[in-house]
Sequence to fold (470 residues):
Amino acid sequence: MATTDVTANGTGLSPQVADELRASVRGGFAGPEDPAYDEARKVYNGMIDRRPAAVIRCADVADVIAAVRVAREEGLDLSVRGGAHSVPGFGTNDGGIVCDLSGMRSTRVNPERRTVRAEGGCTWGDLDHATHAFGLATTGGIISTTGVAGLTLGGGIGHLARGCGLSCDNLISADVVTSDGQLLTASEDENADLFWALRGGGGNFGVVTSLEYRLHPVGEIYGGPIFYPVDKAGEVMRFYREFIAQAPEQLGAFFAFQIAPPLPFIPEDRHGETMCAIVTCWAGPAEEGEQAVAPLLEAAPVAAQGLGPMPYPALNGAFDPLLPPGLQHYWKADFVRELTDEAIAAHVEHGPRVPSVEATMHLYPIDGACHRVASDETAFAYRDARFACVIAGMWPDPADNERNTAWVRDYWEAIHPHSEEGGYVNFMAGDDQDRIRDNYKGNYDRLAEVKGRYDPENLFRMNQNIQPAG
Ligand SMILES: Cc1cc2nc3c(=O)[nH]c(=O)nc-3n(C[C@H](O)[C@H](O)[C@H](O)COP(=O)(O)OP(=O)(O)OC[C@H]3O[C@@H](n4cnc5c(N)ncnc54)[C@H](O)[C@@H]3O)c2cc1C
Fold:
């Protein structure tokens, strides 16, 4: 069965097939009758409440193959889940199979070669922990609980991107269970077309059971957030635009609108005040950190700053407490080639209306090393964009859904005319499926061909879906 409707319900599992799986799967099986089911079907976005026929908690590649086979043979939707952070909730479904890799989290660092192999269910917290012991790191997300596989397959943007490239640029090889249940290795030398597609094409091509990354000497960093009064947002954004264009690549720095959370370095009487911020990460020589960040302290009067030397994983976990699982999420995104004055005016109108302390707009620089990879060298096409912008609606109470989603939509409508047609697939909403061609620009047709070769029936369709060609 090849349906392209991501909300399509499967037919469920017969008791006989469910029993066979229960007996054969090494990790665990949770169906609606099991006590573990309600926990097992949860994803990070609390807005998503779906009831799959079964969650297969994989312990190894054999379990993954079993999950893929049963979904294919029974004609069921198949969700592949690692960190469960997919905002549209692609990590679960109604009536289908969930292939949950969160039990597959081992890592193996090779300090001499400066590589790490991570199983498909690892989070960035797992990977950072493993590599930091050797003073090494690679580009990952800014929250430690996000899954390495989901993030890398879409591209992978984080503090180290300007100096080290996107996460997918650091991928050396991946093991993939394809729709026919085979295990393939994808690298520059093996199944190179699949390897090309995995680096940006999302979860469209199979279940990635392990990923091997290139590492960089990053141990201690200098950085943290700088907060400014929101009425200076225009000045700060304009300063940031000029500054980041010429800043050394070892400096990561993204712009944000943010209601000040109750952090110790923010004066208590300013907690809850809407501000703008720049979050910095200097990954160059330690003694140059203060100097590298210093100009940003002159962008406007500083309301509060949490700068200092810290282990790289500490920065990557710094925002975790603000974003626990179970919040409501609705996000929209665009790539930005030029941050024009008109775009800044739209940001300055909508950013300060950020409705919740968890919600934010982030403008991530994706220049430097990201630009040294050609647009057609990997599936991630926007190598000429300078920024990836995400309006991330996040709030705790479902009663506030309308207000928060309206903020995201209105904001996005205001900035979109000043942005590229496409956006980063990992920041897209479930209602953004019609933007898929734009998200991949000139790479879409080649992606559709690779999809046709490795997943002709579109078994892997719970994602920003690429239709198989041919
Ligand atoms: C709080 C938060 C912070 C974020 N920060 C960043 C950030 O700093 N940088 C950034 O680039 N993105 C960021 N993202 C976006 C993130 O990259 C995507 O949500 C990504 O899909 C999450 O991957 P996951 O494994 O956690 O999610 P899941 O829901 O488990 O997976 C999402 C999708 O990825 C695919 N997938 C996951 N694992 C596999 C696998 N093993 N094999 C094949 N396909 C797989 C599947 O299609 C799946 O539906 C963030 C998201 C959240 C919610």
The chain is about 25% helix and 20% strand. The CA atoms of residues 2 and 310 lie 49 Å apart. Confidence is low (pLDDT under 50) at residues 1-10.
